[in-house]
Amino acid sequence: MRRFVCVCVREREREREREREREKREHKTVSRFLSADPLTPPPLFVCLPPRFTERAIARHEVREIEQRHTQDGVHEPPLGESDDVVIIYNRVPKTASTSFTNIAYDLCGKNKYHVLHINTTKNNPVMSLQDQVRFVRNVTSWTEMKPAFYHGHVAFLDFSKFGVKRKPIYINVIRDPIERLVSYYYFLRFGDDYRPGLRRRKQGDKKTFDECVSSGGSDCAAEKLWLQIPFFCGHYSECWNVGSRWALEQAKYNLVNEYLLVGVTEELEDFIMILEAALPRYFRGATELYRTGKKSHLRKTSEKKPPTKESIAKLQQSDIWKMESEFYEFALEQFQFVRAHAVREKDGDLYILAQNYFYEKIYPKMN
């Protein structure tokens, strides 16, 4: 098993402080050099140290531009740093969503943001049109709750349809479709270790998943696999037509174009690590909390028995499984692509990459 390296927050802060001090010194020196009268040659004893190359001058010019924009009132904070940013996690049932969400709850006080659970009647993932309007208005206008992390079992909602200029940041996690269905099947009958006293609607039914498959039961039918695709497809009627190829393609489109990051249950720690690097305003400390916290692996389904190869093979014969599996593999490939460009592995450890770009050749030159 790979070990994940999480740099201590205190050490990272010290490193940032050293970097800021270094940039201040560069800025001061380069500023004196660049602000000199261009017609007057510098004194013979004045020369730029070797480190003040074109990169240092470019950094100085970027700072000057940023300061000018701030004075002009057009400066906008980076993605994820503004208090106006909202994250929506439209969590798919039985994908380790409770474990991930509890990390957000544990961090919200420390990182200063709000967490809100979207609790829909009878867990219906599709909102009425009037509720869609209310929800969009809440998310965009409820300034007292910003910055915010919303989570709930709701289908993707396209905010641009409602004339919203600044859309929320969507994230999600999905799971192997058969493993998700097996977990949900036993969850309805035996619950989990998160709320063991809560009575589930199938409680008392002792039939195993394999017995359900062999007898052609409805709770384990291939149609029950159709869930992750419609969750990503959204609030179109075709999304909920089981086996719709259009819904699959729309789900893929939304995953790539509307979601900042989609992880997989099987690689949840990698997902959390990348989120912490990309959105530290929300997820600073999340990786370490996941690894060491008591709430990192909540909601283990009770009495769950792995299905036999025969049961799996029977489900895999259906076109519905093939489409849900195609979507899962598509999401997995995209996530692994993002991860490959975000981290590096050395001696079995994963390291988040530092910033790997800078600006140069900035014109027109600052006077």
UniProtKB/TrEMBL annotation:
<keyword id="KW-0808">Transferase</keyword>
<keyword id="KW-0472">Membrane</keyword>
<keyword id="KW-0735">Signal-anchor</keyword>
<comment type="similarity">
    <text>Belongs to the sulfotransferase 3 family.</text>
</comment>
<dbReference type="Pfam" id="PF03567">
    <property type="entry name" value="Sulfotransfer_2"/>
</dbReference>
<dbReference type="GO" id="GO:0000139">
    <property type="term" value="C:Golgi membrane"/>
</dbReference>
<keyword id="KW-0175">Coiled coil</keyword>
<keyword id="KW-0325">Glycoprotein</keyword>
<keyword id="KW-0812">Transmembrane</keyword>
<dbReference type="InterPro" id="IPR027417">
    <property type="entry name" value="P-loop_NTPase"/>
</dbReference>
<dbReference type="InterPro" id="IPR007734">
    <property type="entry name" value="Heparan_SO4_2-O-STrfase"/>
</dbReference>
<protein>
    <recommendedName>
        <fullName>Heparan sulfate 2-O-sulfotransferase 1</fullName>
    </recommendedName>
</protein>
<keyword id="KW-1015">Disulfide bond</keyword>
<dbReference type="GO" id="GO:0004394">
    <property type="term" value="F:heparan sulfate 2-sulfotransferase activity"/>
</dbReference>
<dbReference type="InterPro" id="IPR005331">
    <property type="entry name" value="Sulfotransferase"/>
</dbReference>
<keyword id="KW-1133">Transmembrane helix</keyword>
<keyword id="KW-0333">Golgi apparatus</keyword>
